[in-house]
Amino acid sequence: MSQVLDAMFEKSVEGGEHVIDQGDDGDNFYVIDWGTYDIYVKCEGVGRCVGTYDNRGSFGELALMYNTPRAATIIATSPGAVWGLDRVTFRRIIVKNNAKKRRMYESFIESLPFLKSLELSERLKVVDVIGTKIYKDGEQIIAQGDMADCFFIIESGEVKITMKRKGKQDVDENEAVEITRYTRGQYFGELALVTNKPRAASAFALGTVKCLVMDVQAFERLLGPCMEIMKRNIANYEEQLVALFGTNMDIADPSA
């Protein structure tokens, strides 16, 4: 870590400044110190904002890892500052560490059915950007009503999904009902990212749970080809909610 910190340099940015541009060669990896930034991806000549950074986050790593052009444009929407790491140092330190992580998680990621629609190179990119987090028995992983900032894949353990009752007058609205349980290889937390709504349910660890975690920016950049599968799963969630509560609680309607 000290090698990385010693090699980084500070760069000030102004509102409206392009920090990186889609299609350019990658020269640096950036970590946000402060400021807000929009992520634009151009498809068929049309640019679309696919996400934002708000005073935290990092970007620019994919072009350096794979020697490919920049996959997105990052535009500062306020004054700010970022810390940069040049290509040579990045590849010497970061890519070496990522090679170890690839060996650990490559076969696991390739075994996940919902990622089958991704090309091999795209699955490897997923391995490179995921983090890991361990939760203790009973620990809350996500909370119903919170804004979503990441997506989870269970590497080991079991997770209980609960939802507070609504729509029935004869029960306490604060009473949480268990919806389902997930185990190794299954995922959760995607619903709020797909629908752009707050978390529709809570998740709790049953025993010790280890999850692979992907932040919302990486989710939007890398899992686009999987989005249709995730949207189809909304129908399954709605069926479960109708059976339990008599309503789907409008989980698929972003304007609700």
UniProtKB/TrEMBL annotation:
GO terms for cellular component: cAMP-dependent protein kinase complex. Residues 1-111, 114-240 form the Cyclic nucleotide-binding domain. The keyword Protein biosynthesis does not apply. One of its GO terms (molecular function) is cAMP-dependent protein kinase regulator activity. 3',5'-cyclic AMP 2 binds at E190, R199. Keywords: cAMP, cAMP-binding, Nucleotide-binding, Phosphoprotein, Repeat. It holds the Pfam family cNMP_binding. PROSITE patterns: CNMP_BINDING_1, CNMP_BINDING_2, CNMP_BINDING_3. InterPro entries: cAMP-dep_PK_reg_su-like, cAMP_dep_PK_reg_su, cNMP-bd_CS, cNMP-bd_dom, cNMP-bd_dom_sf, RmlC-like_jellyroll. SMART domains: cNMP. 3',5'-cyclic AMP 1 binds at E61, R70. PANTHER family: CAMP-DEPENDENT PROTEIN KINASE REGULATORY CHAIN (PTHR11635), CAMP-DEPENDENT PROTEIN KINASE TYPE II-BETA REGULATORY SUBUNIT (PTHR11635:SF156). Belongs to the cAMP-dependent kinase regulatory chain family. This is Protein kinase cAMP-dependent type II regulatory subunit beta. It comes from Anolis carolinensis (Green anole). The gene is PRKAR2B.
